[in-house]
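Dear colleague,

Following up on yesterday's call, I've attached the two folding results inline so they're easy to grep. Please treat them as preliminary; we haven't cross-checked anything against experimental data yet. The first protein's sequence and structure tokens come first.
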Amino acid sequence: HTDHQPSFNEMDCRGRLATCLIYLAEPQGGGETWFPDVLSQQQHLASHSAPNDEVLVAPKIGSAVFFFNTVERPGHHNYSPLMDLAADKQLMHAGLPVQGDGEKWICNRW
């Protein structure tokens, strides 16, 4: 899923410009946040990569991941706080199932 939807442009805050996920608990295994369309550093450096070279952020207590949800971002020459924002489809993500014992707890801030 993406964290910004076109209908969010009608909100007073103008939508979900960015997301910060803070990991509060970690399971024994699994529970990663998966970004299927983001190129890993390894993919950027290699001329070709393995088909399963995907970006997975493991839930570690006290760690966080921050990402922009929209194509338009503050600091870009064409950005205006009043413009309609479009979701950045490359930042679609999903929480993967926990494997084994434990629970994954996160706090998100949009």
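Below is the second protein, in the same order (sequence, then structure):
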Amino acid sequence: SSHLLPTTCCLYTLGAAWAPAIAHGSLWRLVAPVFLHVSLPHLLSNLLFQLRFSFGVERQLGSQRFLLLYVLSGGFGNSVSAAMDPHKLAVGASTSGL
């Protein structure tokens, strides 16, 4: 039900990507959204995608390199997303999709 979903204000406070805040120096907002999700179905769909595609990549790269690639991919993806739609508040691990 909608009363269990986080508010826009809550997501912003927790670190959702938002271009105006990033432009003013909140660069941590490029990575934080990877670890935030709007709902349980949102979390589960991201988790299923990650489980399906990430094990092989992690096996090839090793855990530390994979984590670095995951975080850098999320940061890059969120920067592109913020540039393309600067007034969108964004969360989720989709930008780290490998």
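For the second protein, one point worth flagging: The radius of gyration is 14 Å.

Best wishes,
A.L.
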